[in-house]
C-alpha cells in the first residue's frame, strides 16, 4: 500500500511562494490518511462479520440436520465408550424342523467381588459359602482379605441365588449381566446340539461359544449379528427324536448292552430326522471330558458319528449290488458256498450250515460269508475300493457336527485279494453307523448319492448316480426277503414293509485280535421297501439277549427287535400310514359295539 507523505516537498515550496500556510497541507494530508485507515478497518470488520455469519449458519444447519435425524430414528439407550473389542453375547436360537426350541438364550447374572470395597469380609465369605456350598469359606476369606482387586465368584447364578447374595448387604459383592445357553429339553438330542460355554468375559457381558456338536460346527453362523432373530432350523424332528431315544434306551437295557446308537435318515434328501447315542448327557451341565483311558467310555462320545466299527454282514449288500450292476452276477446266479474257503493261511467260514450252492439272492438272505467273498473275487480290489468310495465309505462325512471331521473310516493299508473278500462281508473296514446309513440311502433310494445333513432342506437336487434304478430295486427286494425269511424276521412291522440286513461283528481288542464273546450288532434297514422314505440304522455295543437257555448276541436277536420297535413308534409320527392289505375272505366284521 502506497502511503502519501504528510508534507510533500513540491506542494510546500509552491505554498510558500503563494503565501499559503504549509501546515494546512500537512493537516489535510493527515485527515485523508486517517479516513483511508478507517475505510480499511471497516472493510476488514465487515469481512470478519460475514465469515462469522457463514460459520454460525453452517453450525445451525448441522444442528438442525442432526435433530431431524434423531427425531426420525428409533429411540435407543446411549452406550458408554469402552476400550478393546466388543464382546458379542447374542446367539441365535436352534429349533427342530417344526420350529420347536432346541436351544435358546436365558438372561441371568454373574457374581464377582471387589475386596477393597468390602466392609466385613469375614461375614461375606461365610454367607457366600452358605449360599454356594461348593465354595470353600476359608479360600474365599483369603481372597477377600488379600491384595486382589477383582475376583470372579460364580460365572452364572440363578435369580434366587442373586437375591440371597443381595440380602447380605455387602457393597463389595457385585453382579454382572449374562446370557447363558439353555437347552429346555435336557438330554434330548444332546449329541446333536453338543453344548456351549463362555469365551471372552467382561463385567458387563460374556461371549457364548459352542464347545461341541452343531453348536461348535456352526459357531460363527450362530453368533453372526446379521442373523437377527432368525433361528437355525435343524432337520431333527423333536417328537421322533424323543421316541427313538426312549426305545433305544429301553432296548439297550433289555439287551444288556454297554452302548447304543440309532440314525433315522430321509432316504431321498439325506436329512437326519433323528440321531441318538447312548449313554448321553445333559448339555445344560456337560460332564468333564476324560483325560485318560478310552474316550468311548465317556457319555460325551458320539457313537453314531465318532464310533468307527466293523459293521459285519450289513456290508454284503454292497458287494452284491456291485456284482449285479457290473453284470458279473444276476439274481438267479448260483454261487458255490461250499466251506470252509481257504485263502493262503486264512479261512473263511459261514456262521450256519446251508446248501453247497446258493443263488445270489439267497447269499444275502442266508448271510453267507463264503458266497459274498466269491462275488467279491469277481469284482477285484480296485473296483471294490472305487465303488465303496462312491458310497462315501472311504472318507469323513461333511455333516454339520464337529465330531464328524475326525471320524475317518479305517481302511486296509494294502487292499489285497484277501481284504477284498473280508471287506465284502464287513471285516477289515471300519466305519461309523452314519457312514452306513448314508451308504444304504444312496444304494436303495433309486441309486443316487445323498449327503447327510442336520439342516432342514427346502429342496435337494439328486446326487450323482451310484447304481441303476433296476439294481437299486433288486437290492431292496433282496433285503425285503431278509426280513421275511432270513436273519431279520423279528424286524417285520405290519403295514410298513421293512427291508434290511443284519450284521454281527466280533469286537476288536485294543492290543490286537478279537474278543470271543463281545460283538457289535447292527441292523440297517429301509422302509417302505417298495419306495423307501427312510433309512434306520441301529447299533448295539456288546449286547447279550438272555431270555433263552443260552445267551444270544447276534443282531437278529438284539438290534433287530429294537429297530422294529423304533419303526413301529416313529413311522406314524413321520406321517406314514400303514399299508393294510384287505381281507377278501368270507366272514362277518363287527363294525361297532
Task: Provide a quick synopsis of the model.
The chain is of the alpha+beta class. It has helices spanning 9-18, 22-72, 121-131, 137-145, 159-166, 190-193, 213-217, 219-222, 238-254, 316-325, 360-365, 369-379, 381-390, 417-424, 433-444, 469-485, 559-573; strands at 94-95, 101-113, 151-157, 173-182, 195-201, 206-212, 232-233, 259-266, 272-278, 309-310, 334-336, 341-343, 346-348, 357-359, 430-431, 499-508, 514-527, 534-541.
Remind me, CATH topology of the largest domain? Beta-lactamase
Helix content: 25-40%
Identify low-pLDDT runs: 77-85, 587-593
Overall pLDDT score: 87
Write down the Rg.
41 Å
Number of helices: 17
Number of domain modules = 2
| Overall geometry | elongated
The N- and C-terminal alpha carbons lie at a distance of: 126 Å
Assembly type of the chains comes to single chain
Class by SSE composition: alpha+beta
Into which percentage range does the β-strand content fall? 15-25%
Q: Let me know the CATH homologous superfamily of the largest domain.
A: DD-peptidase/beta-lactamase superfamily
The CATH architecture name of the largest domain reads: 3-Layer(aba) Sandwich
The largest β sheet comes out as: 5 strands, mixed
Protein model, in words:
- With 593 residues, the chain is of the alpha+beta class.
- It has 2 domains: 94-131 and 152-167 and 175-233, Penicillin-binding protein 2a (Domain 2), CATH 3.90.1310.10; 239-285 and 297-573, 3-Layer(aba) Sandwich (Beta-lactamase), CATH 3.40.710.
- The protein has helices at 9-18, 22-72, 121-131, 137-145, 159-166, 190-193, 213-217, 219-222, 238-254, 316-325, 360-365, 369-379, 381-390, 417-424, 433-444, 469-485, 559-573, and strands spanning 94-95, 101-113, 151-157, 173-182, 195-201, 206-212, 232-233, 259-266, 272-278, 309-310, 334-336, 341-343, 346-348, 357-359, 430-431, 499-508, 514-527, 534-541.
- Strands 1, 2, 3, 4 and 7 form a 5-stranded mixed β-sheet that branches.
- Strand 16 and strand 17 form a beta hairpin.
- Helix 3 packs antiparallel against helix 4, helix 9 (238-254) packs antiparallel against helix 17 (559-573) and helix 10 runs antiparallel to helix 16 (469-485).
- The protein is elongated, with a radius of gyration of 41 Å.
- 40% of the residues are buried.
Amino acid at each position: 500500500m502506497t502511503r502519501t507523505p504528510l508534507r510533500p516537498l513540491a506542494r510546500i515550496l509552491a505554498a510558500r511562494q503563494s503565501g499559503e500556510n504549509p501546515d494546512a497541507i500537512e493537516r489535510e494530508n493527515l485527515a485523508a490518511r486517517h479516513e483511508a485507515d478507517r475505510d480499511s478497518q471497516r472493510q476488514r470488520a465487515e469481512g470478519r462479520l460475514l465469515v462469522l455469519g457463514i460459520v454460525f449458519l453452517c453450525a445451525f444447519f448441522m444442528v438442525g440436520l442432526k435433530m431431524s435425524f434423531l427425531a426420525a430414528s428409533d429411540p435407543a439407550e446411549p452406550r458408554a465408550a469402552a476400550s478393546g473389542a466388543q464382546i458379542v453375547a447374542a446367539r441365535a436360537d436352534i429349533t427342530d424342523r417344526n420350529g420347536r426350541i432346541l436351544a435358546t438364550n436365558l438372561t441371568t447374572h454373574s457374581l464377582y467381588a471387589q475386596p477393597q470395597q468390602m466392609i466385613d469380609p469375614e461375614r461375606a465369605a461365610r454367607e457366600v459359602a452358605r449360599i454356594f456350598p461348593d465354595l470353600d469359606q476359608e479360600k474365599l476369606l483369603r481372597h477377600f482379605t488379600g491384595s486382589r482387586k477383582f475376583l470372579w465368584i460364580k460365572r452364572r447364578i440363578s435369580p434366587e441365588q442373586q437375591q440371597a447374595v443381595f440380602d447380605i448387604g455387602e457393597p463389595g459383592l457385585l453382579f454382572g449381566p449374562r446370557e447363558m445357553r439353555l437347552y429346555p429339553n435336557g438330554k434330548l438330542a444332546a449329541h446333536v446340539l453338543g453344548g456351549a460355554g463362555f469365551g471372552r468375559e467382561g463385567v458387563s457381558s460374556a461371549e457364548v461359544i459352542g464347545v461341541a456338536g452343531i453348536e461348535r460346527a456352526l459357531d460363527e453362523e450362530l453368533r453372526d449379528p446379521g442373523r437377527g432373530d432368525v433361528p437355525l432350523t435343524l432337520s431333527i424332528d423333536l417328537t421322533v427324536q424323543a421316541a427313538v431315544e426312549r426305545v433305544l434306551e429301553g432296548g439297550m437295557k433289555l439287551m444288556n448292552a454297554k452302548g447304543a446308537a440309532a440314525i433315522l435318515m430321509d432316504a431321498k434328501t439325506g436329512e437326519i430326522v433323528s440321531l441318538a447315542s447312548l449313554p448321553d448327557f445333559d448339555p445344560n451341565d456337560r460332564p468333564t471330558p476324560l483325560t485318560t483311558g478310552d474316550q468311548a467310555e465317556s457319555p460325551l462320545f458320539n457313537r453314531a458319528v465318532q464310533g468307527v466299527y466293523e459293521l459285519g454282514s450289513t456290508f454284503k449288500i454292497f458287494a452284491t449290488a456291485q456284482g449285479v450292476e457290473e453284470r458279473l452276477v444276476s439274481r438267479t446266479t448260483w454261487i458255490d458256498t461250499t466251506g470252509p474257503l481257504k485263502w493262503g493261511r486264512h479261512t473263511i467260514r459261514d456262521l450256519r450250515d446251508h446248501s453247497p450252492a446258493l443263488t445270489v439272492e439267497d447269499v444275502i438272505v442266508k448271510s453267507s460269508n463264503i458266497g459274498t467273498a466269491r462275488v467279491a473275487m469277481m469284482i477285484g480290489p480296485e473296483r471294490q475300493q472305487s465303488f465303496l468310495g462312491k458310497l462315501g465309505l472311504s472318507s469323513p462325512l461333511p455333516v454339520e457336527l464337529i465330531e464328524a471331521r475326525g471320524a475317518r473310516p479305517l481302511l486296509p493299508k494294502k487292499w489285497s485279494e484277501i481284504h477284498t473278500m473280508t471287506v465284502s462281508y464287513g471285516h477289515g473296514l471300519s466305519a461309523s453307523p452314519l457312514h452306513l446309513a448314508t451308504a444304504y440311502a444312496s444304494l436303495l433310494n433309486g441309486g443316487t448319492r445323498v449327503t447327510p445333513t442336520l439342516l432342514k432342506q427346502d429342496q435337494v437336487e439328486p446326487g450323482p448316480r451310484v447304481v441303476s434304478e433296476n439294481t437299486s430295486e433288486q437290492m431292496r427286494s433282496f433285503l425285503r426277503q431278509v426280513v421275511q425269511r432270513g436273519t431279520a424276521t423279528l424286524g417285520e412291522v405290519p403295514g410298513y414293509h421293512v427291508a434290511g440286513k443284519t450284521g454281527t461283528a466280533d469286537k476288536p481288542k485294543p492290543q490286537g485280535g478279537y474278543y470271543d464273546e463281545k460283538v457289535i450288532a447292527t441292523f440297517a434297514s429301509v422302509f417302505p421297501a417298495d419306495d423307501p422314505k427312510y433309512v434306520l440304522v441301529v447299533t448295539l455295543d456288546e449286547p447279550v439277549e438272555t431270555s433263552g437257555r443260552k445267551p444270544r448276541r447276534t443282531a437278529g436277536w438284539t438290534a433287530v427287535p429294537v429297530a422294529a420297535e423304533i419303526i413301529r413308534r416313529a413311522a406314524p409320527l413321520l406321517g406314514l400310514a400303514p399299508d393294510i392289505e384287505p381281507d377278501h375272505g368270507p366272514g362277518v366284521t363287527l363294525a361297532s359295539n
